[in-house]
Amino acid sequence: SCSYQRFVNCYRCFYKLQPQLTRSIYDQFISQLQTSIKEEIQEVKNEGNLEGLFSSLDKIVEEAKDREEPAWRPSGIPEEDVRSALVPYFLKHRSHLRRVLREKEEENRKVAESVLMGRDRIAELQQLIQARQQAWQ
C-alpha cells in the first residue's frame, strides 16, 4: 500500500536489513494507531454524552420528515436571526389580535343595538303607561 511504501522510504536502511520485521513493525504500528484512535473517539463520545445527543438528533430528524417548511438556520447576524424568528410570531399574534378585536367590535355592536332596542321599548312602554293612565283618569 501507499502508506507502507512511505514507511519503507523513511526506514530504508532498516528495511534492507530485515524486510519482514519492517512489515511486522508497520502492521503493529497501524494496528495500535487504529486502536488508539477508536479509543479516543469512544472517550470523546462518553465525555460529551454524544450517544444521547445523536439519538435525540435522530429523533428530531424523524419528527421533521413530515414538515413542509425548512428548518430554521442561523445566518450569523444576530439582528437578522432575531428578526427572522420574531417577525413571523408577531405577525401571527397581530393577526390573532385583529381577529379578536373584530369579534369584540361585532359583539359590542350587537350589544349597542340591543341597548337601543331596549331604550326604544322602554320609551314605548312609558308612552303606553301614560296613555292608559290618562285614559283611566
Q: What Rg do the Cα atoms give? A: 42 Å
Q: Roughly what percent helix? A: over 70%
The overall number of domains is 2
- Report mean pLDDT, rounded to a whole number: 88
**Beta-strand fraction estimate:** under 5%
Q: Count the strands?
A: 0
Task: Pick out the low-confidence regions.
Answer: none
Summed up, the helix count is 5
End-to-end distance: 128 Å
Largest sheet: none
Q: What overall geometry do the principal axes of the alpha carbons give?
A: rod-shaped
Structural class: mainly alpha
SSE string, helix = H, strand = E? Answer: HHHHH
Pfam family, one: Nnf1
Subcellular location: Chromosome, Centromere, Kinetochore; Nucleus
Main location: nucleus
GO biological process, one term: cell division
Provide the fold topology.
Elements: H1 2-10, H2 12-17, H3 19-47, H4 50-64, H5 78-136
Could you characterize the architecture of this molecule?
The protein has 137 residues and is mainly α. The chain has two domains: 1-48; 89-136. The chain has five helices and no strands. It has helices at 2-10, 12-17, 19-47, 50-64, 78-136. The longest helix is centred in the last third of the chain and has 59 residues, at 78-136. The mean pLDDT is 88.
Features:
137 residues; 5 helices; rod-shaped; mainly alpha; 86% helix
Task: Briefly summarize what is shown.
This protein has 137 residues and is mostly helical.
